[in-house]
Amino acid sequence: MLALVLILGSLAAAQTVAPPRQMTYVDSRVVLYPAPDGEPLSADYTLEVNGRPVPVYTARTADPPFDYLDHGGTYSFAYFDFSGRVTLTVRSSRMLQSARIRPLSRRIKHSLVDGYTTTITLDEPANLSLEPAGRNRPLLIFANPLEKDPPDKSAPNVIYFGPGVHEPAGGVIRLKSGQTLYIAGGAVVKGAVEVLDAENVTLRGRGILCGSAWPHLKGPARRLLGLRSCRNVTIEGMILRGSYAWTLVPENCEGVTIRGVKICGGRVWNDDGINPVNSRRVLIRDCFIRTDDDCIAAKGLNREWGDVDDVRVERSVLWCDRARVVLLGHESRARHMRNIVFRDIDVIHFVQSPFVLEPGEEMILENITFEDVRLEGVGQGELARIRPVINQYMVNKVPGHIRNILFRNVEVTGAPGPYAITVENYDSNYRVEGVTFENVVIAGEPLRDGSPRVRVGKAAAVKVVPRER
Hints:
Layout: E1 4-7, E2 23-26, E3 30-32, E4 45-49, E5 52-54, E6 57-59, E7 75-82, E8 86-92, E9 100-102, E10 110-114, E11 117-122, E12 126-131, E13 139-145, E14 158-161, E15 164-166, E16 172-175, E17 180-183, E18 187-190, E19 192-196, E20 199-205, E21 208-210, E22 225-228, E23 231-236, E24 239-241, E25 248-251, E26 254-259, E27 262-264, E28 280-285, E29 288-291, E30 296-298, E31 308-320, E32 326-328, E33 336-349, E34 355-357, E35 364-378, E36 382-386, E37 401-415, E38 420-424, E39 432-442, E40 445-446, E41 454-457, E42 462-465
Parallel strand pairs: 1-2, 7-13, 14-17, 15-18, 16-19, 17-20, 18-21, 19-22, 20-23, 21-24, 22-25, 23-26, 24-27, 26-28, 27-29, 28-31, 29-31, 30-32, 31-33, 32-34, 33-35, 34-36, 35-37, 36-38, 37-39, 38-41, 39-42
Antiparallel strand pairs: 2-3, 3-7, 4-5, 4-8, 6-7, 8-11, 9-12, 10-11, 12-13, 39-40
């Protein structure tokens, strides 16, 4: 049933009603979407925006056989669009006195109404995690900007999924050149998307593309959202939930923009968030990524597809439950992986080394920048590992080369810990050349030359520039 749209002059006072399932609420500042019948909602939280109830969905972590992992259990998420200023009211099944809102860098506070109810004021879009007890069963809040110019569902070349649960035939949606896939707010599409040898393709909407019905590595397509040999592709706004394998993967692509995408993963191994594979001119901006496996891993799987070049990740929030936040170099036999920038990034949860740069197979990894990056730690042993390697993922068992790596304005807050940085040549032929740490602050301590946190092996070239006072 299509949602009925109500135009509201003003939003009503707070109501204690069940989340809407068949209604889209719109006024000049706020758009709230329905939850489809049959979609289980959270038992942990309710959410209201300016007094209107918002559906709160769930995402699983650590499905069998990975249930020995403690990722904090099933978590909740909600989404809406707005402009101006709004007030959120959250009711929780757990006490909220000690709750924190991440990223902490946003400095967003909440005001307790009682032990189980709190309010939050927002005046700009944000991807947030409200956490009563750290990473255990949080509420993710995806407060989006107002959507501009959604497509006409009757227009040529538009594949449109309106509010409701949809199960595409065969489990796969395949797009061609010039087509637009639109998953509307209030829609849950159970399936995968595949785009092959196409150009000028758009995938957008506020709804959910869901892979949770499939076991590990047994989905209807290789990726939950896979692009191969495509040009000029835009992916915007949608939520990708519960992938069974790598989640969003451009392979051998040119000109891919990924904006405002939210990835709610964590239920299986190999659910990497966004993996640019042998692709060029890839922009990832304003995204939220939670995964069990690597959040972002650039790879060069096929030497004949060409280099990985010009990848930018900006203004995004990253959360990794088990593997690496950023992995560059594994499973890579391209000639070059270069010109990759991570800028204005919040890493709100990580377990092992968040930054791993380990090229092999003669690949040159060069011109990599991490700038304005904030990490919230709990005393981890390692922060970064930068070295050529030989590992089990390689076809040709030879190391690679590393050149021109910059960490600038990087800060680790939270519990004290080693947060060690390893920089090491493989030998005199496979070297690390030109690694700079500029204004890196770890647990309140500026990184300086000779710091025991920086472990330089086999005469690797490292420069440390402390913060100017």
